[in-house]
């Protein structure tokens, strides 16, 4: 099987998964916030900060977002490859801000605003993956603005269904936010890349999975740690660690030359950071 045929088959699989997920959510019916959605295992204040652990654990998102953005500014790469990375790291900052504000005083509206930033950040990561491994046009400004518009429409859909039916429907935001977890695993080994290896992406997926597991086991983790930390607070730190890992790996070239994505010209010799090239090239 040729590289082009492999790419086409993999893209067909990714498209099928995306469509199947959308159809499944439509068949599932409205997904709404349940009673108790804003209750967390650790609601202890710290001084004047309410729900301190869940609020303060959003602060690392500011640091890793800024660090990743700085690294992207120094990266010598085509604009359509740099752009989704830069947008991703910039989006991590409002995601941290709105997440912290939500936990400061939890309510439905703040939750959805926070979910919108998280969904947009997630789909930007998918655009990073597709721009590198499929077609650079996934990193173009119109595509990224299209996903931003889709996210805003998802928020408006929630507000509209809440006004009409009394309970907002989160399905559009969930579909946008879950896309990397569903689609990236299907393509990391079949689609060659020039920046991050399959092993790098596997670490990203594992950190995402651990983060969501910690969120699900909020109370159990706090009991296991004798009240030292809750699962939800550690969920925030795991997400920050995931973004930090992406910032660390984003300028790492894969040793084996990869075929250029469709619609792209060969990059040629690119000036790359040499700070850690030996270790990352070996790992890939």
Please, could you describe this protein's structure?
- With 284 residues, the protein is an all-alpha fold.
- Helix content is 68%, strand content 0%.
- It has helices at residues 3-28, 52-56, 59-74, 79-104, 108-133, 141-165, 171-187, 198-216, 218-224, 231-249, 277-283.
- Helix 8 (198-216) packs antiparallel against helix 10 (231-249).
- It is globular and about 55 Å long.
CATH architecture: Up-down Bundle
What does the overall shape look like?
A: globular
SSE string, helices as H and strands as E: HHHHHHHHHHH
Gap from first CA to last CA = 23 Å
Q: Strand count, sense and closure of the main sheet?
A: none
If you consult CATH, what is the topology? Rhopdopsin 7-helix transmembrane proteins
Give the C-level CATH assignment: Mainly Alpha
What's the helical proportion of residues?
55-70%
Low-confidence spans: 254-284
In brief:
With 284 residues, the protein is mainly alpha-helical.
């Amino acid at each position: 099987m040729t590289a082009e045929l492999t790419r086409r088959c993999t893209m067909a699989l990714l498209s099928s998964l995306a469509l199947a997920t959308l159809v499944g959510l439509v068949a599932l019916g409205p997904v709404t916030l349940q009673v108790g959605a804003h209750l967390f295992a650790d609601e202890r204040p710290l001084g004047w900060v309410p729900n301190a652990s869940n609020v303060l654990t959003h602060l690392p998102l500011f640091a890793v977002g800024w660090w990743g953005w700085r690294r992207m500014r120094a990266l010598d790469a085509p604009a359509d490859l740099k752009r989704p990375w830069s947008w991703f790291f910039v989006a991590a900052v409002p995601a941290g801000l709105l997440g912290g504000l939500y936990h400061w005083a939890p309510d439905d509206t703040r939750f959805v605003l926070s979910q919108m930033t998280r969904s947009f950040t997630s789909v930007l990561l998918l655009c990073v993956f597709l721009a590198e491994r499929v077609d650079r046009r996934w990193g173009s400004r119109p595509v990224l603005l299209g996903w931003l518009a889709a996210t805003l429409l998802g928020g408006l859909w929630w507000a509209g269904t809440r006004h009409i039916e009394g309970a907002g429907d989160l399905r559009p935001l969930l579909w946008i936010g879950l896309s990397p977890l569903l689609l990236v695993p299907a393509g990391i080994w079949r689609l060659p890349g020039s920046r991050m290896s399959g092993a790098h992406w596997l670490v990203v997926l594992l950190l995402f999975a651990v983060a969501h597991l910690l969120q699900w086991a909020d109370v159990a983790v706090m009991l296991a740690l004798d009240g030292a930390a809750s699962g939800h607070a550690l969920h925030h730190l795991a997400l920050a660690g995931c973004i930090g890992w992406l910032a660390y790996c984003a300028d790492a070239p894969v040793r084996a030359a990869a075929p250029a994505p469709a619609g792209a010209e060969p990059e040629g010799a690119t000036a790359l950071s040499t700070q850690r090239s030996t270790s990352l090239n070996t790992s890939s």
